[in-house]
Amino acid sequence: MVTALRECEHEVLVETGAGVGSSISDEEYREAGALIVNSAPEVWSKSDLIVKVKEPQPSEYAHFRPGLTLFTYLHLAPLPELTDALLKSRVNAVAYETIRERDGSLPLLTPMSEVAGRMAIQVGAQYLEKPNGGRGILLGGIPGVAPANVVVLGGGIVGHNAAKMACGLGANVTIIDRNLNRLRELDDIYFNSLRTLASNTHSIRDAVRQADLVIGAVLIPGASAPKLLRRDMLKQMKPGAVIVDVAIDQGGCVETAHATTHTDPIYFVDNVLHYCVSNMPAAVPHTSTFGLTNATIPYLLLLANKGLERACELSPAVKEGVNTYAGELTYEAVAESQNRPWREVTAVM
């Protein structure tokens, strides 16, 4: 990424140690042409375009200023305080997760969804072990002993990757989605390796009752996730069953879900183990960094080379990514989730 930006004659500032978690040293950044600076505040103050991964934290709000362009995951729907800070400071914020191409694809959400979907099964298998609080079940079973029942709520990128991993490990997999065409596609891909169900309260209730592991993989771009697994359903689940709610970045699709961290990842409700870590891909930063870089670089170069306003004219995908501009909320799904007024970004510009 640094090399590509330098070839376009942009100055690139990198906070010292920023790449350590992803196994990228300051020296490698220097060799690519970056200027290493001593602190994050220095990067914020000297940059016109800030590129991050996770949404800004409260400690970073003080660095917001009018005209600054922020390019990162935002997940604003469940974060009214961050929305307030962006609007008050008149930051122009472009969200990775709402950049949408003409074919409906979400190219900057895809790599992290692939990572999170695959991780969800690894994590779920780990917490099904008895010492970790689970039922004491081996995901794939052994000859003569049945494998775990895995239920995946949502058949998008996260759900597909979770199902792929679970099938590969030999689990009994059920995937639930409201899009029948998507279920047909998955049925064609996996045939008898998994079961597909149309999403409704009855099918979800019946499936999770038998589940050892439930993966929440529901996404409505930019909006809060719908609560598909309700509190009353937990009482019918097996003691020690595990829920991994990958949708927690958008508020979660499990009614009893609340965000946790990698250092304190789980809690129990009605004897059901909940793993609701936001930003799951942070646990595998090397893979995640390079996967995300591959996807973001075309859009980043467009923003850097042309500026936000011209980039929106040239790319409808970038225009859809703009969540706030010059003190205005410009993404409808966020506005609906937070009951706020909004305006089309083209009208504001």
Q: Which residue ranges are poorly predicted, with pLDDT under 50 across at least 5 consecutive positions?
A: none
Helix vs. strand class: alpha/beta
Proportion of strand residues: 15-25%
Mean pLDDT comes to 95
CATH topology of the domain at 110-283: Rossmann fold
Annotated CATH architecture of the domain at 110-283: 3-Layer(aba) Sandwich
Strands side by side in the biggest sheet: 8-7-6-9-10-12-11
Whole-Å distance between the termini? 28 Å
Supply the number of helical segments.
13
Would you kindly provide a written description of the structure presented here, covering whatever features stand out?
The structure is a single chain. The protein is α/β, with parallel strands linked by helices and 349 residues long. Among the domains are: 1-47, no CATH class; 110-283, Rossmann fold. Helices cover 38% and strands 16% of the residues. The strands form 3 sheets. A 7-stranded mixed β-sheet has the order 8-7-6-9-10-12-11, sandwiched between helices. Strands 3-4-5-13-14 form a 5-stranded mixed β-sheet, with helices on both faces. The protein has a two-stranded parallel ribbon with strand order 1-2. The longest helix is centred in the C-terminal third of the chain and has 30 residues, at 285-314. The protein is globular. The relative contact order is 0.14.
